[in-house]
Amino acid sequence: MLILLSLQGAQYIEMASGTETQVSKDSQLYKDYDHLFLKTFSTDSIILMVEGNDVGTRAIMKAADLLEQQVLIVPGVTTVSSPASIIKQINYAESGRLKIPDSDREIREMMERYPEYFKNLVIDKTHALIIIQIEGDSTNQQQEDMINNIELALEGAEFPPGYKLTLTGKPSLMLDIQSEMGTSMGTLLGIAGILMVVVLLLVFRNVRWGLLPLPVVLLGVLFTFGVMGYLGVPMTMVSMAAFPVLIGIGIDYSIQFHNRMEEEIRAGKTSSQALVSTVKNTAPAVLIALVMTALGFISLFTSVVPMIQDFGKLLLIGVIMCYISSLFFGLITLYSFDWISRKNPYGLFMKKLKKSKADDSEDHGLESDSKNSEYSGYGSISVTGEREPGIIEKILRKITGLTLKYSTLVLIFALFTCCAGLYVDQSIPIQTDTNSFIPQDMPSLINYKNMQNILSGSGDHLNVILRVKDTSDPELLRWIDEFCRHEVENRGHVHSASSIVDLVKERNSGIIPETSEEIQAIYDEIPASQKQQYIEGGQLLHIDLDIGNAMADLEVAGIKELRDIILQDIQWLQPPPGVSVTVTGNSVVIIDMLAGLTTGRSQMTLLGVFLVFVGLLVVYRNIVKALSPIIPMLVVIGWSGLVMEGLGIAYNPMTAVMGALILGVGSEYAILMMERYFEEKNAGMSPVEAIFQASSTTGTALIASGATTVFGFAALIFSPFPMISNFGLVTVIDVLLALVVTFVIFPPLIVLMDSQGGKKPGILEKIGVFMKNLRAKYSVT
Fold first, then answer.
1. Residues 6 or more apart in contact with residue 416 via CB below 8 angstroms
2. Is the pLDDT reported for residue 558 higher than 80?
3. Helix crossing, 2-10 with 213-231: angle to 10°?
4. CB half-sphere exposure, 364, CA atoms < 13 A
5. Quick one: pLDDT at residue 291?
6. Vertex 255, ends 638 and 664: CA angle to 5°?
7. Concatenated DSSP letters of 627-684
């Protein structure tokens, strides 16, 4: 039923990539950008680049004119600008015929007489552009439909042979990126699955059915998809990275259950007894680890970036679903396999054979009770009372012994390196050039960059929105003209500025009219397709500031500073009374999103640490048990900063959340180790004996789950997308560090804290004893 419900719910998942994934809908930034600019003035451009021997021929113009007519009827297309339309307008003005001239010579003469009309469309003799403007607030699906229709129109436009036609622009680039990302992610997850199978066969071979944890966790991921659909959690660029994380965490749950049940069976218990014992001892420990992991992920909800909040929701849902899958489906499947193996004829034959051998030789030391007799039917599992430790267990015991021997040195080293890493982390740069997140050799990106190089005004922009009382006020237009000129002349990163004033001056001999009536008359003459990006109704005006490649050159701090300087210029130049000014645009949204992702990472990590600590304190009501898993994770977070600085990796939207992920993933290892330590200690072992036993038993399962996670994420390193590749590399390193800390730092730490906690009372206990003695001394009775 759960599988069927999950398959149904998964169909409701929606892909989100708009402004609402970057900034909150309740924020003023979203309202300014989405309502004032995006839905009012914004248009996106799909660019057709025509390359050949001579783009100024009648054949090219006829094909461009035919393409323009077909594209204009595509839903969502607002305007089309091409050399052919300009040629037709010039021909109409000179001869009264609105058509393409009959000879190449006439076309060349027109282009030579009016070069300023063609400056943005005909780059040189061999390169021309056709610019197709589409609605700026169109969805991804609408953009994809438009591009498909444009490609169909392009096939019927009959461009001459030998000419190269390249469709590019931001909408085309983004759709290609999404397609490439989906293809790449599918391939990488397939590689990750193969690597997980290999590592399970290598590391988890001390149990039967060692591959079972993989389908168990995949079932948990399927449950996650279903819950996402029913709860309306969207899929974003960041949340796509959550599934490798879930596989890494969820497979650990399954491995822990699987390992403990096999351990109980080796001890001679029946299938039912082993199942009950596993649920009784391991399920609460894993549940506590899950709760602490979830508390670490809850800190992601404090992010100001909606897609990070959705990332946290997905992780929270995912770990719960993976636990449910491991507890019920994983254990019941393992129980069923064990029950079947005991009842199959081959198992019965092996049981009788081994029982006969046990009767013939007392030196074998085999136990003859009914439990071990039942267990002996496995064939591949030893039935001796004491199993020979494996190579991994021996290594872990040696490591534990060394760390306990040099405990003081180990803990001091961890403290200093952790502090150094936390300090260095503050200086790690932030990657702001979004083009650097995608493969640099991707054809779509190469075409896009080529288009940027040859087409002015195709870089980053800042959009100045004016709320006014009268859009035809001459004083207002003169202020806009002065402001635009001032910004271009005095601000190096402002390459050009365009507004409705440019269109007015073109139609009035280069000057601004003196009266509102004259300005309004010119407004009426300007085609709606030209003025719609600068004026809306009678109260909104738009100034477009082209800032080139400022996102890559200035980074977050520089863009913020540039925006602040422009706001200061507006205050200094003082617009006319009654005019309010807002600076917005995609660049502003991106820098605020990146700033929210990166500057808030320390606060998210600290909040996660606090929540996990409080959660452990509530569960255990013991300061030692609450602090023991937290301290190792702080060490990992510090070490992670050192690693990123050493490898020269900058923070991006995916690596910025690594602090919360380290806390969520790594604390689980420490909690499970601590649970087994106290279980063995409560059974009568000393602290040193208990940590040795915990390290060699639970540690084997942790190595298996950690290795599986590492191998799974290792596939992401080979991604062609630098953002995903860096995320995979950092995750692999952090999981390895979490394992190192669990086996190197945690053993001496828990023994030291537990021993000290047992020797002398803490401050609260001392206060309690003091108050008790005080009451006894001065008691009236």
1. none
2. no
3. 50
4. 14
5. 86
6. 30
7. HTTHHHHHHHHHHHHHHHHHHTPPB-TTGGGHHHHHHHHHHHHHHHHHHHHHHHHHTT
What is d(CA 396, CA 400) in angstroms, rounded to the nearest whole number?
6
Alpha carbon distance 676, 683 (integer Å): 11
Q: What fold, for 43-176?
A: Alpha-Beta Plaits (3.30.70)
Structure tokens given for 653: 């939207």
d(CA 717, CA 711): 10
- Distance, CA of 128 to CA of 298 (rounded, Å): 53
User: Which DSSP string corresponds to 69-115?
Assistant: HHHTTSTTEEEEE-HHHHHHHHHHHHHS--S--SSHHHHHHHHHH-G
User: Taking 70 as the threshold, does the pLDDT of residue 433 lie above it?
Assistant: no
Which strand (E) or helix (H) includes residue 465?
Answer: strand 460-467
Q: What is the DSSP letter of 159?
A: P
Cβ-based neighbours of 777, under 8 Å, separated by 6 or more: none
Are residues 623 and 617 in contact, defined by beta-carbon separation less than 8 angstroms? yes
What is the domain partition of the chain in residue ranges?
Answer: 43-176, 469-578
pLDDT above 50: residue 690: yes
Local structure of 536: helix, strand or coil: strand
Would you say the C-alpha torsion 117, 462, 429, 737 has a positive or negative sign? negative
The DSSP letter of residue 241 is G
Residue 399's Cα: distance from chain center in Å?
36
Average pLDDT, the chain: 79
The CA–CA distances, whole Å, from 605 to 148, 248, 338, 599 equal 45, 20, 43, 11
Give the whole-angstrom CA distance, residue 350 versus residue 352.
Answer: 5
Is 45 strand, coil or helix?
A: strand
Q: Do 541 and 480 meet the contact criterion of CB atoms below 8 Å apart?
A: yes
Report the share of the chain in percent with pLDDT over 90.
Answer: 7
- Alpha carbons within 13 angstroms on the beta-carbon side of residue 646 total 11
Residue 368 has pLDDT above 60, yes or no: no
Helix (H) or strand (E) segment spanning residue 29 = helix 28-30
DSSP letters for 327-342: IIIIHHHHHHHHHHHH
Q: Taking the mean position of all CA atoms in its chain, how far away is CA 15?
A: 14
Alpha-carbon distance 605 to 498, whole Å?
44
Number of other residues whose CB lies within 10 A of the CB of residue 80: 23
Give the helix/strand (H/E) hosting 369.
none
Q: What is the dihedral of CA 663, 664, 665, 668, to 10 degrees?
A: 100
Close Cβ partners of 532 (under 8 Å, ≥ 6 residues apart) = 41, 78
Q: For residue range 250-274, what is the model confidence (pLDDT) as tens digits?
A: 887 888 888 888 888 888 888 888 8
Amino acid letter, residue 534: Y
Q: CA–CA separation, 466 vs 63, rounded Å?
A: 40
CA–chain centroid gap for 210, Å, is 31
List the beta bridge partners of residue 128. Answer: 50, 122
State both tokens at 532: 């719609």
Q: Given CA atoms 223, 224, 229, 230 in this order, what sign does their dihedral have? A: positive
Q: Which DSSP string corresponds to 688-732?
A: HHHHHHHHHHHHHHHHHHHHHHHHHHHGGGG-SSHHHHHHHHHHH
pLDDT band of residue 548 (cuts 50, 70, 90) is confident
Token output for 345 = 């004829």
CA 330, CA 482: separation in Å to the nearest integer?
A: 72
Tens-digit pLDDT profile for residues 696-729:
878 777 887 777 778 777 777 877 777 778 878 8
Residue 644 contacts residue 737 (beta carbons within 8 Å): no
The residue among 304 and 88 whose pLDDT is bigger is: 88
Tokens representing 100 are 């393409």
